[in-house]
Design a protein that fits this description.
The protein folds into two domains: 1-97 and 266-350, Isopropylmalate Dehydrogenase (3-Layer(aba) Sandwich); 105-258, 3-Layer(aba) Sandwich (Isopropylmalate Dehydrogenase). It contains twelve helices and twelve strands. It has helices at residues 13-27, 40-46, 52-60, 83-94, 117-120, 161-176, 192-208, 219-228, 240-253, 293-305, 310-325, 339-349; strands spanning 4-9, 33-35, 63-68, 98-104, 124-130, 142-145, 151-154, 181-186, 213-218, 235-238, 263-265, 272-274. The strands form two sheets. Strands 2-1-3-12-11-4-5-10-8-9 form a ten-stranded mixed β-sheet, sandwiched between helices. A two-stranded antiparallel sheet has the order 6-7. A hairpin with a 5-residue loop joins strand 6 (142-145) and strand 7. The model has no long low-confidence stretch (mean pLDDT 95). Bound molecules: 1,4-dihydronicotinamide adenine dinucleotide and magnesium ion. Residues 12, 16, 68-71, 84, 87, 257-258, 275, 278-284, 290-291, 294, 332 line the site of 1,4-dihydronicotinamide adenine dinucleotide. It is found in: Cytoplasm. One of its GO terms (molecular function) is NAD binding. Mg(2+) binds at residues 220, 244, 248.
Length: 350
């Protein structure tokens, strides 16, 4: 059985995942790795961004780590064959409904944030975003011509009790291993789906997680609090749309896209999907200057959440922290290290 399926993808994807492979070979040499083409690279080879065998391999592995997909090369490809379509199909096929996006600020990088050092130094909270429901998937959705001229566009926000409950459960479980606090963000003041969200989270909390501190926060206020006093959060639970926006705002707190990992989890026992939050960065692809830490920290999450290697995950996290403390910086962090040299710096600390 494959432990970790690597899907390097496009652009800087293969450059950063190559560093994950080096780290894995040093830290966990017994893990069985496998690698497959994905995204544009797969389209070029097989005419599809996600081959059936690749999806089957992803579902059969214990964890999947991807680099990034997409780029201008595939701009003219039909929508359903685009690299990004492969990613949506991979997420749907793996049924990963809970997206974990840490907002992390390593002390040595606090000055790279858009906020004051004291607001972000040591920042460590986790956004849990619902990933497979809500307004990005709800029906009906369409654009129609209006008889009197102009058009009308409709998207639909839909959530069921079951969808809310399973993602809320992930948030509560996570909080228990952290600082034991969940803030649940919705717009129950103006949306029925927000009312249901609050009701389901409150019920689940009462039934099974009364030991966790739960607060409810309106999503717009959450956006304000993220930039005003982000350290108040431990786990921030929210839906697909608000989570998309709030997690991008949180990402900016930490300085560089090149630093942030993510995980997407499904039901317990099924493989998780791990990926840096950045894209394929066509502007720097092929130059060997991309920051591999987001990908390496995604591997750290895979060790923790899918591979039962919490001790190795701790070691890797500490190694990244020490490398940064000693001044290791790629270009996005204001330094001059190459991708491989940043990999070297982490390996040296391991
Ligand atoms: P991007 O994240 O690829 O790049 C945005 C900016 O951040 C660029 O200036 C890039 O050089 C820089 N950057 C990103 N990652 C970096 C790293 N590891 N080290 C140093 N600098 C880094 O986003 P963009 O430009 O909007 O999208 C480029 C392509 O990536 C598009 O085709 C897009 O669809 C795709 N994309 C794919 C994602 C995925 O595979 N999950 C996510 C986001 C975008
Ligand atoms: Mg987004």
């Amino acid at each position: 059985m494959t432990d970790l399926l690597l899907l390097p993808g496009d652009g800087i994807g293969p450059e950063v995942t190559a560093q994950v492979r080096r780290v894995a070979e040093a830290l966990t040499p017994d893990l069985k790795l496998e690698e497959r083409l994905f995204g544009g690279a797969s389209y070029d080879a097989f005419g599809t961004p996600l081959a059936d065998e690749t999806l089957a391999a992803a579902k059969a592995a214990r964890a999947v780590l991807m680099g990034a997909v997409g780029g201008p090369k595939w701009a003219g490809v039909p929508r359903d064959k685009r690299p990004e379509a492969g990613l949506l199909n991979l997420r749907a096929g793996m049924e990963v409904f809970a997206n974990l996006r840490p907002a992390l600020c390593f002390g040595p990088l606090a000055d790279a944030s858009s906020l004051k050092r004291e607001l972000v130094e040591g920042l460590d909270f986790m956004i849990v975003r619902e990933l497979t429901g809500g307004i990005y998937f709800g029906e009906p959705r369409f654009i129609e011509e209006l008889p009197g001229g102009g058009k009308r566009a409709v998207d639909t926000q839909v959530y069921t009790t079951a969808e809310i409950e399973r993602v809320a459960r992930v948030a509560f479980e996570l909080a228990r291993g952290r600082r034991n606090k969940v803030a649940s963000a919705e717009k129950s003041n103006v949306m029925d789906s927000g009312l249901l969200w609050r009701e389901v989270v409150t019920d689940l909390h009462k039934r099974e997680y009364a030991d966790v501190e739960l607060t409810h926060i309106l999503a717009d206020n959450a956006a304000m609090q993220i930039v005003k006093a982000p350290k108040q959060f431990d786990v921030l639970l929210t839906d697909n749309l608000f989570g998309d926006i709030l997690s991008d705002a949180a990402a900016q707190l930490t300085g560089s896209l090149g630093m942030l990992p993510s995980a997407a989890l499904g039901v317990a026992g099924k493989p998780g999907l791990y990926e840096p939050i950045h894209g394929s960065a066509p502007d720097i692809a092929g130059q060997g200057v991309a920051n591999p830490l987001a990908a390496i920290l995604s591997f750290e999450m895979a060790l923790r959440w899918s591979l039962d290697r919490a001790a190795e995950a701790d070691r890797l996290y500490a190694a990244v922290e020490r490398a940064l403390e000693k001044g290791a910086r790629t270009r996005d962090l204001g330094g001059a290290l190459t991708t491989v040299q940043m990999g070297d710096a982490v390996l040296a600390e391991l």
